[in-house]
Design a protein that fits this description.
The protein is of the alpha+beta class and about 160 residues long. The protein folds into two domains: about 5-90, K homology (KH) domain (GMP Synthetase, Chain A, domain 3, 2-Layer Sandwich), CATH 3.30.300.20; about 95-160, 2-Layer Sandwich (Ribosomal Protein S8, Chain: A, domain 1), CATH 3.30.1370. It contains five helices and six strands.
């Protein structure tokens, strides 16, 4: 737990902020708080149907990433000490994104094995790069590495 306010209090502050933001945007959605571990709280934004939540995700999750940063900043502004990890997910976007990246990584790995040539992927966020690395960690036919400088950092999949 961070010094200052508890993880539960941080989740409560973040939830209050997100609910206010949704209200000001006229988006009908529910925000739930889930403590993932002793130092991480996740806020889940869901609606039924989730169609109007796309505006909170944006292209390739860029708006969602910004929403998470703003939420974290709001919590930090109300905490006298360090804050814990605060994650925001909208309509299970992150879970679906990791699954899609995993499928993509497996296809790339198969191509790399078949051709014997390494392949550089397009630049992506740290979270997306991690999903690629994690999905191929048990594949002993390929190795992965990240190259480049932010914000143009990318993954290379190479034969083992």
């Amino acid at each position: 737990m961070a010094e200052g306010i508890s993880l539960a209090e941080q989740g409560s502050i973040a939830k209050e902020f997100l609910e206010g933001l949704l209200l000001s945007m006229n988006i009908k959605a529910e925000v739930s708080v889930k403590e993932l571990d002793a130092e991480t709280v996740e806020l889940l934004v869901n609606a039924d149907p989730p169609t109007e939540l796309g505006v909170l995700v944006g292209p390739r999750g860029t708006t969602l990433q910004a929403l998470q940063e703003v939420t974290r900043t709001v919590v930090q502004s109300k905490s006298p000490g360090r804050t814990d990890r605060i994650l925001v997910d909208v309509a299970q976007y992150r879970e679906r994104r990791v699954a899609a990246l995993g499928r993509f990584a497996q296809q790339v790995a198969q191509e790399v094995v078949e051709t014997g040539e390494e392949r550089a992927l397009e630049p992506m966020s740290a979270a997306d790069r991690k999903a690629i690395h994690d999905s191929l960690t048990d594949n002993d036919q390929v190795v992965t590495r990240s190259e480049g400088e932010e914000p143009r950092r990318f993954v290379v999949v190479a034969p083992a």
